Amino acid sequence: MPLWAIILLVLATIVAMEFIAWASHKYIMHGFGWGWHRDHHEPHDKSLEKNDLFGLVGAAMSISMFALGSPMVMGASAWDPATWIGLGILCYGVIYTLVHDGLVHQRYFKYVPRGGYAKRLVQAHKLHHA
Fold it and tell me: pTM, whole model, 2 decimals?
């Protein structure tokens, strides 16, 4: 696969994951997955919450794609693009963790944005939790 195609596939996966995360949040987390997601909407002093299990689901998706793209795992039937899709899912997970858990919920650092897009993002998420 040419480098430009790999970069495009990784970026497209990151964008696609935002839509997957939106749909998962709306239809799964606030639906049949509420048992895991509920504590994310409740005040607590725990460092981990059941909602973090959804991150393990994302990790399993990424690992599965890496496995599908690996000749060592799949042999001759390995599908090369799967590796790059797995990398895109991984990158999305890192971005999501830093922005959502880090910036919005301040689980990892105490930075409060004073303006711009980051401030609006935090405000919108607080409205969602209200």
Answer: 0.86
